Every structure is written in structure tokens, then in C-alpha cells.
Amino acid sequence: MLCRISRAAVVAALLAGSCLAQALLVDLADKPLIRNRLESGAVGLRQRQATISDLFHDAGCSAEEQRVDKNFGNVICTLPGQTNSVITIGGHFDFVEEGKGIVDDWSGASLLPSLYQALKSRPRQHTFVFVAFAAEERGLVGSSRYVKDLTPERKALIRAFINLECLGLTPVKVWIHRSTPALVARLSEVAKALDIPLQGVNVEQVGDDDTHPFLSAHIPVISIHSVTQETFRILHTPRDRMDAIHFDDYYAAYKLAAYYLAYLDVKTN
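Predicted structure:
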């Protein structure tokens, strides 16, 4: 079980030297690198898989830690931890024909290598599995197959699934109705400690996302996004391109996600 730590403890850990502070240390990629990785998605759909694999490699994910699902195209990078307990993070790299698919969802997928990079230099309790899913737009195909292929034993080891979807349109949002309350509470604690705005915005009317197969498998999930009633009209249109991203909001989402993963890694046993 993941432990619950008070907001005061998070603040103290982020500002002071302590065992918890050591656990929450991350190595954030700088803004130019994050922007370059986001811009690298301006390629055709057939090139996206190779691009995300290259980004993982550039972030330090070795051949032994990375694999591509040959049947369904998911790109998977594993950061081994000190235990077999797993935290899985995902975003999808495919997109519809309209637009460039930068928001939906290269904005999420391209952060996965940077999150790996943020965590990899220090020992972690959990094993982190970063999955760039294929074929989300065709009915959650990549994530559904990923979950279906998990053995019961492997499912039982997953403590949380964090989905990064359509980031940077606005400040960070969380899909409350879809997400496990304890995971939302912990995200809120980290957001407050970092002074990053966080709102609950439910998006049932917009569509589904890759949390669905994990939730159906009784795995705790959280869906992090940036969609509002005003901005969802950008998705699946020619307006889904690089200039739709507000970069300061996007980088804040990266920073929040990195510290959040480190926070989730802290445990009592």
C-alpha cells in the first residue's frame, strides 16, 4: 500500500533535507528539452512509434529497459525499482487524421521519457513502467491489449496507473469521476506544495481514455488532463497543433507529474 503523507510533510520534504526529501528529489528536464520533445511529434502517424522509442533512448532508457509490442505497437520503458510493486504511467502516441495530434495526445506521450529521466538517477522503491500506447483512437486498443496480457500476478503488483492526456491547453486538470479518490488527494497535496493550480474537470462528455481498461481490472487510476468546455473543441480538428499548447501550463504539468510520481513512490513497507 502507498502511504499517505500530509501536505505539511510534502512541503517540508520539498524544502528541507530529510529522508522524505531524498525520496522526492527528481531531476527535471529543462524547458528547451521539453519543448523539443513536444515539437518532435510533428511527424506522420507511422513515424510516431519510432519517435517515442528514440526519445526514450535519448532519455537513457536502455535496450534492456525498453521494448516494443510487435503485435499492437505499444512502446514500453521499464525503470526497475527495489521491489516488484509497479506504478504504470501512460499516454497515447496515435492521433486522428484531422490536425497534428500534438495535444491529443503527443502532449502526454512525449512527457513519458522526460518523466523517466526525472526519476532514473535515484533508487526508487517501485518499478516504474512507462507505456506509450498505440491505437487509443481506434477504441483503446493498445491499453486494452496491454491490460489483457497481464497475468493475475502482474495485475496484483500494479499500485496505480497514471494517464497523461491532452496537456497544456490550460492549467492542470483531473478527471475526478474517473479517478481513484486517494490518488486525486495525493496529487492535490503535491500541487499545493508546489503552488501549481489544479482543478477537477470531468470529461465524460468528451470521450474515453486509457484509464478505462485498468479501472475495469480493478487497478487504481488517475486521469490528468487540461481539457475544459471551451478547449475540447480543439481536439480531433485541424486546430490540434503546436500553437494550441500554452507552454508554461505544459511545463507545470510535467513538473507536477514528476514530483507526484516520486511522492507515490514513498511507502511504509
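Summary: Confidence is low (pLDDT under 50) at residues 1-5.
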